[in-house]
## 1
Amino acid sequence: MADKFNILHDLSPLLSPQASIVLPGDIAFSNLTSRWREYRAPNISVVVQVATEVDVQQTVQYAAKHNIPFVARAGGHGATEALGTASHAIQIDLRALNEVILSTDGTTATIGGGANVKHVVNTLELLGKRTVTGTCDCVGMSAPILGGGHGWLQGQYGLMADQVVSARLVLPNGELITVSEKSEPDLFWAIRGAGHNFGIVTEWEYRVYDAKPKLSYEIFIYSGDKLEALYSLANNMLKDQPPELMHWGYIIKVAELDPEHPILWFIIIYDGPTEAAREHTKPFHGIESITVQSGEAALSELSALTFQDEDGPGCAYGLTSLRYPIGLNSYNIAAVRKVYNEIDSTFRAVPEVAGSFFLLEGYSTQGVRAVDPATTAFPHRDDRIVVTSYIQYKPNPAIDPVAQAFGKKLRQYLLDGSDDPAHLRAYVNYANGDESLQEVYGWEGWRLERLRKLKKRWDPKNAMRYYVPIE
Ligand SMILES: Cc1cc2nc3c(=O)[nH]c(=O)nc-3n(C[C@H](O)[C@H](O)[C@H](O)COP(=O)(O)OP(=O)(O)OC[C@H]3O[C@@H](n4cnc5c(N)ncnc54)[C@H](O)[C@@H]3O)c2cc1C
């Protein structure tokens, strides 16, 4: 347990003048520890707001010496079972480590381990650059990278993890090392897919690309009876979806649009001019819609269009939010229909969860598939679609079992209807945490074997065990 008097006395003198230690009685404490999901959140005794790399080292060393659990904190959107097992932990708050500095040749940027998506996208945009990031403004950059990292531009450039040239990593014993293809390549392999298990990244050297003109988009809203038509077209699109094209779907209740049933919200985004986008969106106009909205947007504006900006539900803190992810190659229409019907009936039976939504992410995958799957710990490169429920409600233990059963059922429908029902593929950054390690880190035996070996070498005391732990 973190003894607050000792930590103040012992650690403060070792930290930089800009760092601070915040305790539960302090006015800032609850704000600093509030999270996107409060359910099964880590139990924090003290927050160390680090300002330098050395601050991270000193804090980790202090934690190691006193055997105190610690969790890194950037965007605060981490939501998986193991986080809730961190008890009386130190929150190593990385948010001040948020620099985004372009290299002189303009091909990479140095990105701080605590930066969030909005800061990176906006800063690069001002510099005439872009890169692969997650979709939600408030989510950290580091955690998605550590688990692979899906995002709008992955069809063109690969996953977020594929953008990493090197990382500065504070190991669980407090030592600082740089990992890259040349320096500790085994560990470099591991932190790109299973990275929550190995250390705290203070800084990334990350690939960036020249900015392009605005993207084009069309948002279609359909009533639930159009599901078969919509997802048949989505399947057709997946067959030859160009790298610049992506689609996203929500199944969600919007009473103003349909007071009875959930609607189907579907965006197609094309990283190119409207005329070219039209070629892909045209068939979707053939399905009778409730509304269609078309336009152009900067990369930084996609978050607002998809409800992932600071005012949207993606950034709302404090709810119970349950995710049960599955990676797929195409939409099994009958299974998606079952999902829809289950959502429809559950929203009526359990109105507390009627604010939930179901997300179907159909990014392009050429850039992801172009990378040899053996070269990173990310195991699901062949998946074309990432799907998950976001079962959200005001914290209420009476609802928890119903909500969990609901989420699991939705995923099971899709798994049963998938091309490989015996092998669930669950993206680590969305994982509920009750999945098997194979489901998360890969079914090929060598992957877990290699991860376990590396874990023994780099984190023998298993200090990094609060995010889908390998051990
Ligand atoms: C609304 C929403 C949108 C999302 N969108 C995307 C998306 O577009 N693409 C995608 O791939 N994922 C996405 N995710 C999933 C996301 O990757 C995970 O939820 C991730 O854990 C959130 O990271 P965070 O920094 O916001 O959260 P935190 O709670 O701050 O961090 C989560 C965990 O990551 C680890 N961690 C964080 N920073 C570091 C660091 N510097 N070094 C070492 N470990 C660290 C720690 O284990 C920490 O507990 C989304 C999640 C939500 C809730």
## 2
Amino acid sequence: MADLIIVGGGLAGCEAAWQAARRGLRVTLYEMRPHTQTSVHLTGWLAEIVCSNSFGTNQRHRPSGLLKTELRSLNSFIMRCADDSSLPAGRALAVDRETFAITVTERLGNTPGVEIIRQEITAVPEGPCIVASGPLTSPALSTSISVLLGHQFLYFYDAVSPIVESGSIDMSKAFWGSRYDKGNEETEGDYLNCPLDEQEYKQFIDALVDAEKVELKPFEQPENDTPMPSANKFFEACLPIEVLAAREIQALSYGPLRPVGITDPRTGRHPFAVLQLRQDDLAKTLVNLVGFQTNLTYSEQERVFRLIPGLEQAVFVRYGQMHRNTYINAPHCLHQTGQSRQRANLFFAGQIMGSEGYAGNVASGLVAGINMSRYLKNQEFLSFPRETMIGALMHYLIYTDPENFQPMKANFGLLPVLDNPVRSKRDRGFAFSKRAIRTLSEFISETGINQYVQ
Ligand SMILES: Cc1cc2nc3c(=O)[nH]c(=O)nc-3n(C[C@H](O)[C@H](O)[C@H](O)COP(=O)(O)OP(=O)(O)OC[C@H]3O[C@@H](n4cnc5c(N)ncnc54)[C@H](O)[C@@H]3O)c2cc1C
């Protein structure tokens, strides 16, 4: 009899299984491959990574490098397997994907307390369970999750607008304000507005229509015969801006760039068009380009969106994208540990809870594995400090606005501002990293989080 079922043997599920087993739980991990394949996986190995073989930088003063440093301090199982399978890749952690997947499969299979069963789970199990079935969760399980959480809280496509650092926007051109001045009276308005005159608008549309796009692969196209009620609706409701712009030159000025109700305080007039950027985190360090879901390549997003006045030097912390991705509305459905608000013995981890990037998915698996074992032992949950990248990422996923929720990966905009502001981007990275590592080390000694059942 297992104490805990984990669904999905990807990065998050394997990390969660190891963390829970090392804390004395009997874990059964269900992986549907190789009997039931996804549309992109090729093997039956656990933790098969399907695209890039790079986990990103190891440099601690960069967000993804800091996250990996934190994971190593927390004895992450997946990080150890990745380090042991690494290839020469400069400052990045790249792995031999086959060696990595085989290492994870063999080591997890040999971990006391872990049983691995190759079987598709078609309904959310009733007992203690961590769902870590990833962006390509099988249709039957997706349906079961959406029945449990509510159809409106499970999504099948990422339709994500880019996010930029608000401090990188040129405020001599942009201004805070709300349509018809209906903003929060205590602030200057809820949106950062970048006004465009007619010529700037036309230049932007020309560049947008001609820009290089990412070709969607067949499995990323909307499925017309999908059994999921909200799958197509979500996709159709969010056309990429370049598709809208190609239909009719004025389309964006009546859509996401409409200027109605906005007055430029510097001219006292309505601009020809306006890009609005909405606050994306509590500290207002991040803002997203409202309604700008796109399939432009990342480099083209930087080139084209920087044509908008005020965004010339914008620092992108996340690019827009539209692709197949199953994920739940974490701020509505979950607590900070990944625990479901509806069912205390159900946790989510990995891409399905909205954490992004390989290291981000490992992190949410680690948090869920540790806290599920604490839940089952009636121990207090452990919330990672917000100054750490793990804590900041989990905090963002749960406390961001559920109305506008999009998956998120590690970035410095999620961390609380520094006590002493640092001007250079590089020095800022070092300062964030130093504070995070110190805070995590104190947290590890105070909580004894790295002590396992022998
Ligand atoms: C095509 C594609 C390319 C990507 N490229 C990148 C990239 O380059 N970099 C990056 O950081 N991220 C990338 N991602 C996102 C990537 O999926 C995650 O970063 C990471 O793999 C997610 O980890 P996970 O554990 O949440 O899910 P996964 O690694 O997908 O693991 C989930 C597992 O659950 C299994 N499963 C699903 N349903 C069931 C079921 N009902 N019963 C039992 N088992 C089930 C699956 O077979 C899978 O093994 C990509 C995703 C896709 C789809």
## 3
Amino acid sequence: MSKVWDVVIVGAGTAGLPCAIFAAKRGAKVIVIEAADKIGGSLWYASGQISGTKTKLQAKRGIDDNPDKHFADIVRINHGTGDHPFMRIFAENAGATVDWLYDIGWRPQDEHPAITYGHEIYTTPRTYWAKDGAISIVNALAPLFDAEVKKGNITLRLSTRMSEVITDDRGAAAGVRVIAGEKSDDIHGRNVVLTCGGYAASAELWGKFHNRPLRGYFWPHAQGDGVKAAMALGAEFKWADNFIPTFAGTSDPDTGDKKWINTICTPQLRQPWEIYVNMNGARFMAEDNSSVDMRERALMQQPDMAFWSIYDEAIREKAPPLLFAWPKDKQDRAFASHPDYRMGASLDELAAATGLSAAALKHTIERYNLGQAVKSDAFGRQFMPLPVSKGPFYAVKHYAISVVSFGGVNTDMKCRVLRANGQAIPNLYAAGEMVGFGRFGNAYVSGTSIGPAITFGRLLGEQILTWNTNQAQAAE
Ligand SMILES: Cc1cc2nc3c(=O)[nH]c(=O)nc-3n(C[C@H](O)[C@H](O)[C@H](O)COP(=O)(O)OP(=O)(O)OC[C@H]3O[C@@H](n4cnc5c(N)ncnc54)[C@H](O)[C@@H]3O)c2cc1C
């Protein structure tokens, strides 16, 4: 039989890199299988917010915070949902993760930790975000990873895709089958760690688990291979029901549906000058409501989880840019050719261009303008600088978009993959988005995807040889 590795890690991303680094430092011989031609995974795409308490950076700024407050805030934001023991372990270890990243050279923005507004806000400044986004985390982790590769403790196989977990005659994980180019081979190991991300990029699994089309922006290798491989061995699939979308995104006219962008719909960053109109031609919320969670829940109730953001020429001229200050030629290109960017000289023309009922659209705009004139809006909106009154009129279609997959395989607190009957599949572990973003509940909580991926990857790497009772003696 070919070499038997101490630890086979599938996925050199957010969870896989720290897992490999810590396992290798502890003396394990590790092989890392990566489908892409480079390490880093979703960190190449993510914005990179992480959270944690009692950190050196909080201490420096005199911020009074602790894991209990972090945990309480997570539970407040997610309305008491999700896996509380898992969240508690995260809250207790998240600060050490931030400090570790800091110690190895990662730096957030100068004023961080801060309150940030992309998700429902924490009560205390405990979000850390680097200027150059999540790629800064790869830049901090890569030298440590490379050092272990150089020492011969980690072997990295890029452009190699795991297709299944292989088992021994007891049903214990014993390695993985991989495909590289045309070639398939088996890699054997005493411990198999699935850190190969979620299914955010898989139209097939979005359809299967959520009955929804794929709309979002994600690492292309997030195809759910790990979830499928673990489920093939009987792993329990959980948390998909906690799905909630982000508010909201539109497709980039230059890349079509391949890249979805978040326009600036966060009132704390840009007050809305437009009105939001659903596919029935009706408004459905106060566009300036400052709660991200409320906005996301309102959007979930709308037909096709979509709306048109509608404005007129005066708003186009006076409002700060909705479309990230796109140059005029890009805006012209979008409105000339892309079905999600429409304009019309009159409201009848705009209705025809968007497919909205002209009667409903005119009624909605008339009602909004009446309220705007006397500063009393039917939905309680406060910020209403201008009516929507003079053509040409513009409409940009926004959708509920997703950057993470909510469902994942169940594990115990030692990251062992569990069957529905609660029994662990021997020698099989999972961390990162593999275990479902929805494990953190029915909400987006700031920094609870990258943070837990690094934290559980780190804990697993530090302890896998002892957590696996078969390995306990070997590790002594
Ligand atoms: C646009 C965007 C913004 C985000 N912003 C934030 C944020 O600010 N804060 C936050 O907490 N989270 C954020 N997230 C989510 C977060 O980035 C991910 O949930 C997290 O990075 C996932 O970590 P992971 O280790 O599970 O997966 P990854 O980091 O994606 O790593 C998985 C690795 O496995 C590889 N792989 C996949 N399949 C196979 C296979 N079959 N064989 C071998 N290798 C395989 C992949 O190529 C990848 O390298 C964001 C995500 C996106 C897309």
## 4
Amino acid sequence: MHSLTDHQTALAEADHCVKCGLCLPYCPTYGLYADEGESPRGRIALAEALLRGQLAPDDALEGHLDRCLLCRACEVHCPSGVRYTAILDSARARLRESGGGTTISAPDSPLMTMAARLARTLHLPGLRGRLARALPVEDKAPAPGSYPPAGPPRGRIGLLLGCVTRTQQPGALQAAIRLLNALGYEVVIPDAQECCGALAAHQGDPDTAQRQVEANRSAFAGLDGMVSLASGCSLHLAENLPERSPEDITPFLARGLQAHPLAFSRPQGPMALHVPCTLANGLGATNPLLELLGHLPETEIHTLGQPGGCCGAAGTHLLTQREQAVRLRQPLMEQLEELKPRYLLTANIGCALHLAEGAISEGIEVEVLHPVELLSHLIDSPGGI
Ligand code: SF4
Ligand code: SF4
């Protein structure tokens, strides 16, 4: 776990890397390119040289640092405990200071606006339409305010709307409120909340990221905890706002259902389950999705991909690193084609959009949902505890 890091701290962190290479076999970009510059060890060396002023920014250096997915598989497998993400964030910030770095950072702008702009500038015909169709938006994001349970509340929990989730997956937010209320929690949506800060932090803009963290620190004060539906946001909050007890909604609900079971109907077909790398590697939580779905009767669940693997969505990579994102997604599409599940469940909005867009491209019929949407559709006892 790390918080937003200055360059000196990042250099001290890079010193802990003993260049053993034990992380290399787990790195998806090294697996794709077999190039040291696309490996964790290579990127740490490049970041170190950049931060010490021994290497001037150029397109090649920027490319190596940009293509990192921040999937954190390297951190999980590093015997020296190197906090790789802190080093990479810092190097990206230095690139931005020197006039380079990713230029599409717009943490509060709707993803579709970004997609439309990029589809034009990067010549990606059809992408915007496929993304727009990827997750049908039938609900409105819940309004700020308080959503009480039927009886006396077990606690007051803040809900982070998320800058992409609120526009692309508002039904999942409504579903989360329904489940939390059914478990006896009052849900509070503070009006003054902002983006979690992950997009800005990972695109070399720590000042914006810090401002967003501070805004959320104030907005979520006085509650018993807070939850987020996108595991990427949950991870950023866990690392930067621990005093507000943030948690991803999937382990929170899995625990809640364990203590206070609710009745659910049987799902109407098999499910494919995608565990985002931010959940598996970042939050060290591989089981909450299975635990959560284990509360449904008679389920057939198939896990997609390798444990801790990355689907390629990687924040804005689904837009900015199209070729790499599609190559990393392809094995999951082949598995999906073979399994032909009724549902594809994932707990991060970026992964959901990327996988759903892939399914449309490949002509695979599957309903892509956040697990809380499926649970909410199948709940038998909405007020029943
Ligand atoms: S975060 Fe992921 S893509 Fe980046 S260097 Fe580590 S393992 Fe490779
Ligand atoms: S990041 Fe860790 S595992 Fe990878 S080369 Fe450095 S010390 Fe070894």
